[in-house]
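pls design
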């Protein structure tokens, strides 16, 4: 555990390594022995049989046989790129995070994805898109693992296996690859009505982005920032694309699925290779860190809710430019491992129950996907900050750790007494008060409103956008076999808006149901003067 024996950082080894063995003067085995022939197996005579002693044959076939690793359980289809994040310094008063101080340049790797299709599925299907960013900061890696839709289907991570089981292809026929044109998806979202907000975003043009370059990104959850003085604020992260937000039309999306299933991947790589570097601005919505953790009546721990930007403006804090395509898709895009717990000092989590569950899930799945506990040593995952941990051994260990005492304090490797710790630069968990309350399996009452923001979204749409939403619901629900499921979803739409409901019902040839609850009053938002702004920081 001394700094001299640590694993080399990504910066030192160069991410990614650019070995071009196959372009050398001659081929070798994996052991470096020169080969004369890689096209013929060793046989007993020209007509065989093949001899078991042919090590080159066995090594080549063995390695090929094991080239595949499991695809991600969600977000399997993706594309990625390297870039640089430059901070403006505008968040300096809010967080001690060094990479948000003025004019700091931080290398990044971004992976965009669809959620539900498998690795080889088409890019332009109707689905949510992932937008995951790894900032290799000098104080440790920060992963912002977001989506292009600012809300999520569920409020508690314990339902994540359920919503994904419902959204993935049916277990019997393994169709469809697209998100929503099937019975189990609509069964789930009409029974778990907190999903209706995310669903209407999917049915809108946001569900079929034109390009990764024209997508917004959202951290979704509320996070907590802490500054040098120990003061905290609550924030939501936003990525705003420089090119603006643009979508495909449904007809374009369908055609492209056939003509060019790699449309988004190709667009990203072609743009970067031609020097048209994609850009986003990172922004924050900032809220006072009150004990209630609400803002303008919105529960900030409920991931199915947004805070309208009219009530809390998005404040720009830095700029992201993607300027380098991967050298090797597998090594970088496939092996990258994001995690919400990768936080530098100055950024902390909140008690959002969806966020809390994610903190468990990603490490857990990566342990299988990347075969063992050492995937942080894969070049794309290596921090650029110096690493001095006491993690040892395990599958795929690449480091040669010197010393005999990977524990602290010790009296053998110069580790006694253990220095009190580097309080000034270390990550310190914000000592948030934990409620003195009984253990309980229940949502807070503030999570019960499932419709008012769905209605707010619908009412904010232009006529042509509304038309697209009606057509999307009608098309996707039209693929459902069970009539009772269509009727239950129409019932949900009745609680959103009578025109939306009637138009979709007509398209499906079904009766228009009455709402089961009064339509939410969304026009009146709290006066801006009543909202406690904390921007700009002093
Ligand atoms: C993967 C976003 C909720 C489990 C991903 C990825 C993104 C993402 C962008 C792809 C990462 C990559 O490119 O490698 C989100 C967002 C969520 C959310 C924005 C809600 C706000 C959840 C929840 C769970 C979960 C609640 C589980 C409790 C996973 C798993 C992966 C994944 C297992 C695969 C990770 C891997 O194999 O490396 N998520 N997710 N996600 N997510 Fe989520």
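designed seq:
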């Amino acid at each position: 555990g001394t700094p001299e024996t640590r694993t080399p950082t990504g910066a030192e080894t160069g991410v990614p390594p650019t070995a071009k063995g196959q372009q050398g003067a001659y081929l070798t085995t994996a052991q470096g022995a020169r080969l004369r022939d890689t096209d013929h197996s060793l046989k007993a005579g020209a007509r065989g049989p093949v001899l078991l002693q042919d090590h080159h044959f066995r090594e080549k076939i063995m390695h090929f046989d094991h080239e595949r690793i499991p695809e991600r359980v969600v977000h399997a289809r993706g594309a990625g790129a390297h870039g640089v994040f430059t901070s403006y310094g505008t968040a300096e008063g809010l967080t001690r995070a060094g990479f948000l101080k003025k004019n700091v340049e931080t290398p990044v790797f971004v992976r965009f994805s669809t959620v539900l299709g498998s690795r080889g599925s088409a890019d332009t299907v109707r689905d949510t898109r992932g937008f995951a960013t790894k900032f290799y900061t000098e104080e440790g890696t920060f992963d912002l693992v977001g989506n292009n839709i600012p809300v999520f289907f569920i409020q508690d991570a314990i339902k994540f296996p359920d919503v994904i089981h419902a959204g993935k292809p049916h277990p019997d026929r393994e169709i469809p690859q697209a998100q929503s044109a099937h019975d189990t998806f609509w069964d789930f979202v009409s029974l778990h009505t907190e999903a209706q907000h995310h669903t209407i975003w999917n049915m809108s043009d946001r569900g079929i982005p034109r390009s990764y370059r024209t997508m917004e990104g959202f951290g979704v959850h509320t996070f907590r920032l802490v500054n040098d003085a120990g003061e905290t604020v609550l924030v939501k992260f936003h990525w705003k694309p420089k090119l603006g937000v643009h979508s495909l039309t449904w007809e374009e999306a369908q055609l492209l699925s056939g003509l060019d299933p790699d449309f988004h991947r190709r667009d990203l790589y072609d743009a970067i290779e031609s020097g048209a570097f994609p850009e986003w601005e990172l922004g924050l919505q900032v809220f006072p860190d009150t004990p209630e953790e609400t803002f303008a009546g919105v529960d900030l721990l409920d991931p199915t809710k947004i805070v309208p930007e009219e009530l809390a403006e998005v404040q720009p804090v830095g700029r992201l430019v993607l300027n380098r395509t991967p050298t090797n898709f597998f090594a970088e895009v496939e092996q990258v491992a994001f995690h919400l717990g990768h936080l530098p000092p100055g950024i902390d989590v909140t008690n959002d129950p969806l966020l809390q569950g994610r903190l468990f899930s990603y490490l857990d799945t990566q342990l299988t996907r990347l075969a063992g506990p050492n995937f942080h040593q894969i070049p794309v995952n290596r921090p650029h900050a110096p690493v001095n941990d006491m993690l040892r051994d395990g599958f795929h260990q690449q480091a040669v750790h010197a010393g005999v005492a990977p524990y602290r304090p010790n009296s053998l490797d110069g580790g006694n007494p253990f220095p009190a710790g580097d309080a000034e630069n270390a990550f310190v968990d914000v000592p948030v008060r934990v409620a003195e309350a009984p253990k309980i399996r229940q949502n807070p009452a503030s999570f019960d409103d499932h419709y008012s923001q769905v209605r707010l979204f619908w009412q904010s749409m232009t006529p042509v956008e509304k038309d697209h939403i009606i057509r999307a619901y009608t098309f996707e629900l039209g693929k459902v076999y069970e009539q009772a499921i269509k009727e239950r979803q129409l019932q949900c739409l009745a609680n959103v808006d009578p025109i939306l409901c009637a138009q979709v019902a007509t398209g499906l040839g079904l009766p228009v149901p009455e709402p089961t609850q009064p339509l939410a009053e969304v026009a009146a938002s709290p006066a801006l003067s009543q909202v406690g702004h904390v921007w700009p920081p002093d």
